[in-house]
Specification:
Elements: H1 3-9, H2 15-26, H3 36-52, H4 57-72, H5 74-81
Helix pairs in contact: 2-3, 4-5
Length: about 100
């Protein structure tokens, strides 16, 4: 079964089946109380990540920096993330920038 077929089956799976798939994909039990809809989304991401590769280290570091900045000061952090050089508040905001992923 290819990845797209696997992804199509996720929403129709029972919660017990999703928990089993979670164990296979993540190597640990699904968190208690997690909603089925969230499990489907997280499993879909994980299955694609395993099939096509995850984020590169540079992107992962940038996301970690952004998360840390948001937890310290949500309003200032969000404004700085939309700038060409986040460390320089005078840089223009990158409106309309097209983020894309190269495969």
């Amino acid at each position: 079964m290819d990845v797209s077929e696997i992804l199509k089956t996720l929403p129709e799976m029972s919660k017990a089946s999703l928990c089993q798939r979670w164990q296979e994909c993540f190597g640990k039990p699904a968190p208690e109380g997690i909603r089925k809809e969230l499990m489907v989304r997280m499993l879909a991401y994980r299955i694609q990540e395993q099939a096509f590769g995850g984020l590169n280290p540079k992107t992962r570091r940038r996301l970690d920096q952004m998360a840390a900045a948001i937890s310290k000061s949500p309003d200032n952090a969000i404004a700085s993330m939309t700038r060409a050089n986040p460390g320089n508040p005078t840089d223009p905001i990158l409106a309309g920038k097209d983020p894309h992923r190269d495969y």
